[in-house]
Every structure is written in C-alpha cells, then in structure tokens.
Write a structure and sequence with these properties.
The structure is a homodimer of 365-residue chains. Chain A has 365 residues and is mainly alpha-helical. Chain A has one domain. The first copy, chain A, is 68% helix and 0% strand. Chain A has 13 helices and no strands. In chain A, helix 4 packs antiparallel against helix 5, helix 4 runs antiparallel to helix 13 and helix 11 packs antiparallel against helix 13. The two termini of chain A are 22 Å apart. At the A-B interface, helix 1 and helix 6 of A face helix 1 and helix 6 of B.
Chain lengths: 365, 365
C-alpha cells in the first residue's frame, strides 16, 4: 500500500539540499558584483533597484515573501481540512496538498535567490519549483479519480530529478543535436504518460475497468489523449526548429499547457458524469483567474531581458511603480503568489461536492 | 511497517537536486578564474595543476572517478548479495547498503566539483556526502541489531538536511553566539540520540526488553553511552573555545569519532554475546585499515590551505607525484575511495556468521 503522505515529507530534504548551494551561488554573484563593479553579470532593473545590505535589488528579493506566507497559510488550511473537514478521506491523500504548500514556500525562497542576481544561468532556480508545482497539481487531479494508482512519492521525485537534469542540459548545451534528441524524448514521454493515464496507472488497462467503462468517459479520454499528443508533437518539432533561447520558460509552458488541458478535461467531465461543481471551488477558480490575468500583464512588462545584452536590457528598465519601492516585477510576485494560492485552493475544493461518497462511487476519468 | 528500501530511492532526487546547482556554482568560479586572471579565488596546487578544457586542475577532478566506479561496484555487490546471498533477510534491509553505494558515487561527483575550484565556501560540498556516509553506516550498524526500530528514510533524510543547514550556518556566521548555541545543540543531540539508542528507537524502553535484557549488554551499552556523551560534551566545549576555522572538518571529525565508538562497541559485543567474527568481514576490515593509513598520510600533505592566504597556500604546493600527472591529493582520492569501499564491505559482511539465524535470535546491542 503506497503511503502518499510521503509526498509531503520527501520534498523537504530535496528542498533544503537544493536551496543551500543555490543561495550560496547567487550570493557569490552578488559579492562579485559588489566587489568588482562589473554591473553586467546581474540583470537588475537598475531604475528601481533598492539596495539593502549586500543586496543590490532588495525589493525584488523581498517581494517573494508572498509565496512563503501564502505557502504557510495553505499548509494550515490543508491541515485543518484534513483534521476537521467533511471528507472521510484518509489523511495520506492530503500528502500532495502538503507538498504543494511546501513547494510554494520553496518557490519564494528560490525566486528570491534568483533575484539576488538575475541572469540566464540562475533563472533555472526560479523555474525548477514551478515545474514541481505544475506536476504535483496534475498528479493530484489524477489521484482524485485514481486514488491508489498514482506512483509513489519516491518514483515521482526521481522523475522530477530527471526533468531537472534535462532543464540544465538545455541551458548548458542547447545544440541542434540536443534539440533533436529532445524531440524524441518529448514525444516518447507524451505517449508513455498518456498510455499510463488511459490505463489508470498501469501498462495494461485492468480488465474489469475495460468492461465497466462509461462510454462517455472513454470518448472524453480519447479526445484528451489525442489533443495532448498532437500538442506535444507540435511543440517538440516547433521548438527544435526555433530553438528558443529561454529554454526554461519553454519547458514551463509545455508543462502548463499539458496541465491546463487535463484540468479543462476534468471540469468538463464532472457534469458529463452527472456531478455538480463545488461552490467554493468555482469561487476560488474565478479569484485565481482574476489574479492570473493582471499578474501576467505585469510579468510581460519586460523590465529586464537576460536573453539580450546588458545594455539592451537596461533600455527596458523602468521606474518603481508602488510606494517608490516596488517595480512591476514585484507586483507580478505579489499577484502570482495570490493566484497560485487560489489555484491550489481550487484544487483542494474541486470535489467537495462529493464529500461523503465512497471512493468506489466516484466517477473515474 | 517501515519500508527501508526507501533509503536507497529517496537519496537519488536529493543527490541530483544538490549536485546540479553545486556544479553550476563551481563552474562559474572556474570561468571567473579563467576570464579575470584572478588566481586567488581557487586554491589549486599550482605546481601540479594539469589543465584540460576549461578546467585548471583536471587531475584533481578526474582522480575522483575512483569513488564513482567503486560506488557502482558496491551497488552491484549488494544487489548480488541481496539476490543470491545466504541470508534469509528481507530485501528491504539492504536499502541502507544501496544508499551507501549511491552516496559513494555522489562523493565522487561532489568532490570532483569541489576541486574545479577549491576554496573555503566550496569545501562544504566535498564534506556533505561524507556526513551522509558516516551517518548511514552508523544507522546500518544499529539496524543490524534493531531491525525495525530504525527511523524511516524520510525522517533520517530530513534530519540530515537539518545537519546540512547547520554546516552552512557554521560557514557563513561562525560567531561566538553561534558556537554557544551549537554547544547546547550538540550536547542535546548527543543526549537524545543515546537515549533513543538505549531505548531501541523509542522514547521509553519497551518493558519486555527491560525484563529480558542481558546484563553484559546493558553494562556495555551504559559504558558506550557514558563515553559517547563525555566525548561530545568535551568536543562541544573545546570547539566553542577554539572556534576552528575549518568547521566542516570539525563536524566530520565529531561524526566519525561517534561512529567509530559505536563500531568499536559493536565488535566488542559480538564475542561478549558469544558470536564469532565473520572471516571475510575481518579480511575487509584489515584491507580498509591498510588503505586508510596511507590515505590519511597523503591527505595530510597540505598541498593547499584555503584557511590561509593564497600566497601562503602556494608555499605548500608540490610537484606531481605519479606519472607527472597526479599529486599527493589525487593519491588520497584513490586510496580513500578504496578504503571507503572496503569499509562498506566490512559493514556488509559483519554479521555473515549469523546467516540463517532468525531476527529474534540475534543478540540485541
């Protein structure tokens, strides 16, 4: 019997062992920036870089506290729901939710670290926990309908480690050969994962599931699988042709679109299978959307661009926007922290309308 | 029921997520060394620094392959023993052995990374997996006699993460206040761990164990606990007074002496409880000693000293010793890799004389 609570415990040493050298790395860049006077290694928004202590852009570091505080709040909420909620759900199934809360806290720590000295090579530290959060939300959606078919925590985290290696390889050796290999890896992964999904976590669909399958669900799953694989095929080939400079954001985009397609499928299948939407889930969803839209606008302000030269990046720098202290990117931090928090709340409450129903009675899709 | 095989799986993502930023950090130092011409950031043995590609001291990096190769060999041996060995032992009890093999491989990767640019702040990456190996060997000895009382993998790795944080804190803020707090932390940890050991992994000794306790074992355990606590008390106070510059080596020394005391107790208690020594275990032990002694001599050659200034460190530099390519520190790498390998083999075979005996028949100490 898999103990899914380990999703929450196992992420802790991974987080600590990752963050320690990252923080050391970025501080060594900061010290070098301060000591040498070379201002081209760190792509700050020099028109709103408020220094404090050794930090050149303290505002860009401090504004990440939103992730940390909301991550802690999310952990508290999950704990309360697990302890006092209506669901008869075994506490271990909250393991992924706890892991999401911890991942949100770590996003704050690592994004803050990135902003100590933002540049191409440090950007991966900002995105690594974004990958983890997207993957964990997708897995939680899967687990809602396939309780015990989800892989154990150590299996998932090993694959996330492999993903992290690929992310770094793309950064350091983004050659044509790498991109060609990546096409096959991407398409292969898409096929394998959709196959595992269709067969409910197995390599072959259990016979009783085939016999009892709801026709509408099978049609829906088939459409999902076709759309997801078409998307991944297109993305893999397009990326090999374009070879985007910002490999990390490309990877994140692929993950988010896959996750988004699955979420869309999920909220379509609920009424198809005769389920209502949980009221609070709908509320949190629209609050999340209401935060993601302005967050995205602020993110796209392009205050700094490490894909270009330091001089060109400086041309995009802008004055502070809030309180003569925070710039547009800080506002992105605040808004996206809230957006992530409410996205996780949406996930936490998405099946609240099913509280009290046995696991076997819940529609599987 | 705790699944101890997770000791082997959980260490993998921890290792990957740790190594990725570490390698990036040290390469950024190397690039800075190459581009700026500042030769004081990396404490090479300049009289035997054979460059290759971007690496200034390729020999000091390459000589770490011994750890990697012997780590792989140890994993193969453990796998063979688990599959074909005489023991009726459940495969999950080999989890710690697999973890040791992986840790040995990681020691090679991280020591190699350290030697890309050896200095005070990077030294922690060399020692971090040494801490893990010492802790895992101690835990394995404990598990040999208290099969199911050992903590689960995720608990151990979380505490190792806490230890890693302490190691970094000692590096970045080794103030008097830190040392004073460390005294209490050190002594407290010693008391708690020896208490947990005496009570066989519990906070209170199970009643049946108290009634059935062998008097000789109790006396032996009492002596061990007193000696260990006296040592830790003395070390903690002495360190707070001296405040050693090389905090990482101090921590490693403390861990190794504690582990060594427990190992000494273990090999004394075997004949006290009427057990023989396993022949191969004795053989591997003396081979290990035979490698540790010369390894230690080569380690103490002091070719570089990042505790001093770059100029003073250069005064200790020496010519290559082997094949006009490897220096004494490379020889330390080769010898210590072998010594660690045979130390682990000693641990793997230490109770081979008990093969076939049920877990309940094995003396508990």
């Amino acid at each position: 019997m898999k103990d899914y609570i380990l999703y929450s415990w196992n992420i802790i040493p991974i987080a600590v062992f990752y963050a320690l050298p990252v923080m050391q790395l970025v501080f060594s860049y900061q010290v070098m920036h301060n000591n040498t006077g070379n201002e081209d290694k760190c792509y700050y928004n020099f028109m709103c870089a408020n220094s404090f202590g050794q930090l050149s852009a303290f505002n860009n570091v401090f504004s990440n506290t939103g992730y940390i505080l909301l991550g802690i709040l999310y952990l508290i909420i999950v704990r309360l729901k697990a302890t006092y909620g209506n669901s008869s759900e075994d506490k271990k199934y909250f393991g992924l939710h706890y892991a999401l809360g911890i991942a949100l806290i770590m996003e704050g720590v690592l994004s803050g670290s990135y902003h100590v000295c933002p540049n191409r090579s440090n950007y991966q530290f900002d995105t690594s926990y974004m990958y983890i959060m997207v993957c964990l939300t997708t897995l939680k959606l899967f687990q809602n309908r396939h309780r015990d078919e989800l892989a154990s925590a150590h299996v998932t985290y090993i694959w996330l480690a492999v993903f992290a290696i690929i992310a770094v390889l793309g950064l350091v050796c983004g050659t044509l050969a790498f991109w060609i290999i990546l096409v096959f890896v991407h398409i292969g992964a898409s096929c394998i994962l959709t196959c595992l999904y269709y067969n409910e976590g197995h390599w072959r669909r259990p016979d009783e599931n085939t016999q009892n399958a709801d026709e509408k669900v099978v049609i829906g799953q088939t459409i999902l699988i076709v759309v997801v694989n078409l998307f991944n095929l297109s993305a893999a080939i397009a990326a090999a042709v374009v070879q985007p400079d910002d490999f990390e954001t490309y990877l994140l985009g692929v993950l988010m679109i896959n996750s988004g397609l699955y979420f869309l499928f999920y909220i379509i299948m609920k009424p198809v299978c005769g389920e209502c939407y949980a009221v609070f889930s709908v509320l949190w969803f629209f609050v999340a959307i209401g935060l993601w839209i302005p967050a995205w606008i602020y993110f796209r302000q392009g205050l700094t661009r490490w894909e270009t030269t330091p001089a060109i990046s400086r041309e995009g720098n802008k004055d502070c926007s809030w309180f003569d202290f925070y710039d547009d990117h800080d506002i992105w931090h605040f808004l996206s922290a809230g957006a992530l928090f409410f996205t996780f709340l949406t996930l936490l409450t998405i099946d609240d309308n099913l509280d009290g129903e046995g696991a076997d009675d819940i529609a599987k899709f």
